[in-house]
Amino acid sequence: MRCHIVPPHMLERIARNADDPALRARARRTLALTSAHATERRLAAPAAAPAPSGAAVPNRMIADAGHKERLPGTTARAEGAAATGDTSCDQAYDWLGATFEFYETAYGRNSIDGAGLKMISTVHYGERYDNAFWNGEQMVYGDGDGTIFTDFTGPLDVTGHELTHGVTQYTANLDYSGQSGALNESLSDVFGSLIKQMHLGQTADQADWLIGQGLLAPGVNGVALRSMKEPGTAYDDPQLGKDPQPADMSGYVRTYEDNGGVHINSGIPNRAFYLAAVAIGGHAWEKAGRVWYETLTGGSLASAVDFVGFAAATVQTATRLYGADSAETTAVADAWKGVGVSQ
Amino acid sequence: MKVTVVRSGGFAGIRRRGEADSASDPMLARLVGRVDLGSVPPPGRIPDQFVYDIDIDGRRTTVGEAQLNGPLRELVHHVLGHAE
């Protein structure tokens, strides 16, 4: 159940009085994620009691680097605190909430490590800094230079992408180099996009399958930084160059830069996911997303896995979940053929 | 001396390349004199951080953003200021 359209007073009643403990916990969580500080304070007493179903609530912390390059910076907003009025800080806080809710609702995962890890984001990092990253412990966002890039806290899928690097670190821990690195990148794009799709309530055929839509400043010739649907078409601009991503193995790029082209060759598994999700239909996080999630977190993926090994693992997961002859498993197998990873 | 810097990686994955010659750039000549490519630690593989490939007259090294400081950092930003 997702409660966004339920008014807060009803949620509060559900949170206190519903017979189903899971329903009570979920209503509390939705209130914590979406409503004002005052509402949360009113619920402080019941929320402090042991959670009856174990349904998780987020623990967020936003820090402000004050345009320096030191981490984490000074605390700007702790969990449950009122909005600060700083757009980057408040956006980062809300998008961490949406990302947390995605993992909890879709896959029952409690935060980055599955055990309620505090989610820390630093905003206003550096001067006109054109990047966002995961440093192994937290997310970091620059303001962008304002000419090519806008604020990196803006698009939800950027937060989803960075937090998913944390999920990968705590699960398959894919080596950030070569094909396993491109898979690490692709998984961050896949779940980044799915987080946005759930937030917007979109099905696979309604989604834009773009990564970083809204991040390019006005005047830059491009729609986003990557397209999972059509890798290589996201931008073509005199300042940025052309989107270098290949759409299938025939365009695989061998390079020593970018840890072996992890942001380039990720286009191949990105498109495989898109093909599987669209062939299966419906909400992409429910089936295709579950296959990828369980493959990532299942414990049997080698940290140096290549595209062929990952493809085989997703087919195995789909077979286990839906059966060997199911439409879902066929869609996953066909997707990897569609990008030239399998025959 | 000819100095080339390539920045790759980052969330956007957009490559930047800069090139300069210390013969016509006194500031670069001073920076090159203060840089020791042999003492640079290996780049950590940190998701979405920038990676810098630096070439000073054929001597090469790769530096991760987190290790980029001191005169090498000044040199990188100076040369990328001339980015194509």
From TrEMBL, chain A:
Record keyword Glycoprotein present: no
InterPro entries found in the cross-reference section: Metalloprotease_M4, Peptidase_M4, Peptidase_M4/M1_CTD_sf, Peptidase_M4_C_domain, Peptidase_M4_domain, Protealysin_N_PP
Enzyme class: hydrolase
Domain Peptidase M4 per the UniProt entry, residue ranges: 86-169
Domain Protealysin N-terminal propeptide: from-to ranges: 3-31
Primary site of residence: secreted
Keyword Isomerase: no
One Pfam family named in its UniProt record: Peptidase_M4_C
Compartmental location: Secreted
Cofactor entry: Zn(2+)
GO terms, biological process: proteolysis
GO cellular component, one term: extracellular region
GO-annotated molecular function: metal ion binding; metalloendopeptidase activity
Role: Extracellular zinc metalloprotease.
Entry protein name: Neutral metalloproteinase
Annotated organism of origin: Actinomadura physcomitrii
From TrEMBL, chain B:
Pfam families noted in UniProt: Emfourin
InterPro entries found in the cross-reference section: Emfourin
Domain of life: Bacteria
Protein name in UniProt: Metalloprotease
Organism annotation: Actinomadura physcomitrii
